[in-house]
Amino acid sequence: MDNLSATGSLSLLLFTLRSGKQMAINLLKVSEIIPTPGLIRLPESHPHVRGVATLRGQPLSVIDLSMAIGMPPLQDAQGGCLIVTEFSRSKQGLHVQSVVRIVHIPSSKILPPPYGTRANSFITGAAEIDGQLVQILDVEKVLLNIVPAPVEADMSELDDQDAQLLGKTRALIVDDSQVALHMSLAALSKMGITCHAVRSAREGLATLDRLKDTAEAINVVVSDIEMPEMDGYSFTQLLRSHPDHASIYVLLHTSLDSTISADKARAVGANAILTKFSPPEITKCMLQAARTIHLGEGAEV
């Protein structure tokens, strides 16, 4: 575990909402930051959606982040700026009061959510910055409450051979977002895949070590990319250099556009990469993984 505990820093984007209190978002989950554009209000839209803007010719839903996490709305609907992120294959703008700065902190300094935090909280962790405890936003959980849930894959179309291959597949899901973890777990379990789920690369490696040489040994890892402590790229590199885990099939699962990350995923040795979250697409990827593992069929990122 020493090679994992030596990992470096996490980059956080600090921002403020109406109260002025600073919060943070994992910088890897941010595609860009833009001034608040003019908005078109759509009838019957979610109450937390202020409207729709156009970003390079594509629609961009703009969410009042204060309202989305249970706080009063921003006072100035046209002020502030948008933190653009991606979920369920579409981009959303998180409307915030201001973006403060980017900080880099040691991964070891990331704390779990404060004691007493509600189970339905939108906080995935915390960090002490300049003497203050700054909460880190669980972006996927915020967006899942607003963006329609992905359509489930139809398992009835699987033939007997594919069903058998999936039944022999044992997956480890690694994702720092509890919501994303549960979504992946539900999708893979529905396919008949035996699953283990953890929230960090550290826990992932410990699980792989614990299960190796047993009947439950993992043969495919489905890992988020945008994680604290160690991101999915570094985790893949670690697995490829590990004598016991080098041959494990690795599917990288990203909140951002996978086409942008494909070259880097290929370079670190990932077998495939997929943009979150599409049950039909992850079913297709897991079928390819199962065929590669059990039949020796090739797969490329």
Automatic annotation (TrEMBL):
Keywords carried by this UniProt record: Phosphoprotein
Entry's Gene Ontology BP terms: chemotaxis; phosphorelay signal transduction system
Segments forming domain Response regulatory: 170-291
Domain of life: Bacteria
Entry annotated with the keyword Cell division: no
Residues modified as 4-aspartylphosphate: D224
Record-linked PROSITE patterns: CHEW, RESPONSE_REGULATORY
CheW-like domain boundaries: 9-148
Protein's UniProt name: Chemotaxis protein CheV
